[in-house]
Amino acid sequence: MTLIHFYQSAIKKSQVLSWIPSLLFRLILAPVMIIAGYSKLGFSENPETFLQAITALPSIVSWFGNAEWGLGLPFPSLLAFLAAWTEFLGGWLLLIGLFTRVISIPLAFTMVVAMSTVHWSHGWFSVTPTNTEASAARVLDWLSIPGAQASLENSKQAAERLSKMRDILEEHGYTEYLYETGKPVILNNGIEFGFIYFAMLLSLIVVGGGKFVSADYWLARRFLVNLQS
């Protein structure tokens, strides 16, 4: 029983730090959302008019609406506008922790849309693992999860192709320059990052922006004190 009491006491004391995960999630998500929204809006490309500045770029609108090479969504101008401003303003709200639970809901929805329309057909991994021994799919293969073996086979093929790319680069030189900022990888564009962001946003919906480090916390303290006095 002493061990159980010690465990329960340690868990209770650890709640003092419960605000840290919320803060870290917000700091990770905020820049991602801000730049995602910014890159969709007209003011990112020196617009000529105010209307062009606050609406989505024509290329983004076309991508939202085109069914052949884009998302094929209805009302592309409206949806692109809403998505861009949700991400841009939502990112800033996450950064300061204002209306954290509220803004996390539409942001989570944008992640669901992105995963289902853009990334789903590419599988799980955002970057193809080329070492099958270290691939997470290996664990799923142990559990006989459908698709795991196919993922491992894809990793083998990707490793072969990446090796040939590197051989070509080694043969023709400039590798010191080309590898200076990192070695090449194969982009898979799966749902991995989108799902991780969705999970983080879902957590913020449940637990909020965190004590001490969010505007929500200080606003709640102020108004609750006023209501109680």
Describe this structure in words.
- The protein is an all-alpha fold and 229 residues long.
- Helices cover 66% and strands 0% of the residues.
- The protein has eleven helices and no strands.
- The mean pLDDT is 92.
Work out the strand percent. under 5%
**Overall pLDDT level:** 92
The major β-sheet equals: none
Q: What's the order of the H and E elements?
A: HHHHHHHHHHH
Summarize the structure.
The protein is mainly α.
Topology diagram in text:
Elements: H1 2-14, H2 19-38, H3 50-54, H4 58-65, H5 76-96, H6 100-119, H7 137-142, H8 148-172, H9 175-178, H10 192-207, H11 215-228
Which features does this protein show?
single chain; 11 helices; 66% helix; globular
